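Protein Record: Sequence and Backbone Structure Tokens
======================================================
Tokens: labelled as protein backbone structure tokens, with as many entries as the chain has residues.
Task: work out the structure tokens from the sequence, keeping to the layout shown below.
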Amino acid sequence: QVQLVESGGGSVQAGGSLRLSCAASGLLFVTNRMSWFRQAPGKERELVAGINNGGMTNYADSVKGRFTISRDNAKQTVSLQMNSLKPEDTGVYYCNAYDYLTNNDYWGQGTQVTVSS
């Protein structure tokens, strides 16, 4: 059974930092592209950042230069370092795993990030 367990969410003032982590189990981590998505109230879920099994990354324009995604294949974890947080970064952040071999998509339960002005 695949499990993605997020941690590290919370409340912070604008300009602050948070680090999200996602621990994966039940899947072959190295064949998965790992991503972070977020969903703000009343909005659709959007991609924040992704990293493939070779370490190549991509980011939403709104977070470039402020957020950094990284992965540790040995520990089967993916992290999102979020700096210079803005109120518009508020939302539920979800960890996602996309398996290249099976085309399966997996989601974590989400963790709340709230940035106050």
